[in-house]
Amino acid sequence: MEEMPQPQPSRVYLDHAATTPMVPAALAALTEAAGLAGNASSLHGSGRRARALVEDSRERIAAALDAHPTEVVFTSGGTEADNLAVLGTYAARTRSDPLARGVVSSTIEHHAVLEPVEVLERRGAEVRLVAPEPSGILSVEAVVEAIEDLERMGTPAALVSLMWANNEIGTIQPVREVAEVARARGIVVHTDAVQAAGPCPISFTESSVDLMALSAHKLGGPMGIGVLLAVRDATLEPVVHGGGHERGLRSGTLPVAAIAGCAAAVEDAVRHRAEESNRLITLRDRLIEGALALDLGITVGGSWTPGSAADRLPGNVHLIVPRCEADSLLFLLDSVGIEASTGSACQAGVPGRSHVLDALGMAAAGQVGVVRFTLGRSSTAADVVAALAALASCVPRARAAYAVGGVGA
Ligand code: PLP
């Protein structure tokens, strides 16, 4: 296999869910295309060459994800794709049916879905956020109950938005089952597949959803480019208005080089998915089993079946470490070269309280130490050994700091 670029040679990078290094094929496609002049909307030769590159990329992404090329809408990333799906669907559905003000989603969605849903609530939407089971997985029945509750209220759901895989605890959600029920009732279904695309086998056609958000930098492509897969008859209004690019759904000059890098990354991720998934499951399980065996009272957040990626992403290790602060543990791990995360969203670099842990009934991340190691293409068995050694030395130090109320123990 090609040599994977290491984020920083002296560091152990275990934060691939935040962003993963570009794969060589994506880097090559990006840099080659970056040297070309031409706006893909221009009619001259340079413009037509840029357009050909965009359309070739669109076709390759569609082929890799079992979608039709016209279903590929380029956005600036996962956040914009989610916003377009949520806000755009609600606008279009309520225009044709003013009573359909219902929105169903989950309490463990990424902020890229939760925040636009909150915007809709402030504009008069009836929102139902379904909580997961203690396993971190939603029950289909609970989602159906929320849909039926909205029907009883006289505000039927316009949209169900359910993430494919959770970014903090890595749990896989029953998207297809929910989509089949919801679509049979005429409800538009969106899934945020930002963390799932790459590690999980994805067929847009078979998923039964109308809309699916993807982000290139989570699967080996460049930052600043994403895709909303949208069925051809999607009930969707644009959020960004302008020159009418991308079926009129997302205006703005297309970033040709980023699109070329995105296509190469998607293809590469799909080509290597099965072997990579097996490799990462082995590393993931070794890290989880090693952490549990440290005798430090560590437990796993969310469902975990050893040897399987059915309930948890192959590269996600989410550990709950009682009696220490997440931030001091991360700081100590970083000081010994291990780059990890809590997994919860930061706002301008300030870690926020984890709504996912809240949804699972756990105390705030500040009171219960959590650490998320996420493995990816550059991860090795040596990284797992280094992470376990670091946990063994850093957890007692983080606990000592917690006991005296400081960080610098
Ligand atoms: N959705 C999920 C589940 C994510 O994990 C992220 C990023 O962390 C996003 C959406 C946002 O994607 P992007 O960084 O491309 O805006």
Question: What's the SSE blueprint?
Answer:
Elements: E1 12-13, H1 24-34, H2 45-64, E2 72-75, H3 78-96, E3 102-106, H4 111-122, E4 126-130, H5 140-153, E5 157-161, H6 175-184, E6 188-192, H7 204-207, E7 211-215, E8 226-230, H8 256-292, E9 299-300, E10 316-321, H9 326-335, E11 338-339, E12 346-347, E13 350-351, H10 355-359, E14 369-374, H11 381-404
Bound molecules: pyridoxal-5'-phosphate (PLP).
Pyridoxal-5'-phosphate is lined by residues 77-79, 82, 110, 112, 163, 167, 192, 194-195, 215, 226.
Alpha plus pi helix count: 11
Order of helices and strands, N to C? EHHEHEHEHEHEHEEHEEHEEEHEH
CATH homolog superfamily of the largest domain: Type I PLP-dependent aspartate aminotransferase-like (Major domain)
**Structural class, from helix and strand content?**
alpha/beta
Domain count, please report it. 2
Your description of this structure?
With 409 residues, this protein is an alpha/beta fold. The protein has 2 domains: 24-271, Aspartate Aminotransferase, domain 2 (3-Layer(aba) Sandwich); 272-404, Aspartate Aminotransferase, domain 1 (Alpha-Beta Complex). It is built from 11 helices and 14 strands. It has helices at 24-34, 45-64, 78-96, 111-122, 140-153, 175-184, 204-207, 256-292, 326-335, 355-359, 381-404, and strands spanning 12-13, 72-75, 102-106, 126-130, 157-161, 188-192, 211-215, 226-230, 299-300, 316-321, 338-339, 346-347, 350-351, 369-374. α3 runs parallel beside α4 and α5 (140-153) runs parallel beside α6. The chain is globular. Pyridoxal-5'-phosphate binds at residues 77-79, 82, 110, 112, 163, 167, 192, 194-195, 215, 226. Residues 77-79, 82, 110, 112, 163, 167, 192, 194-195, 215, 226 line the site of pyridoxal-5'-phosphate (PLP).
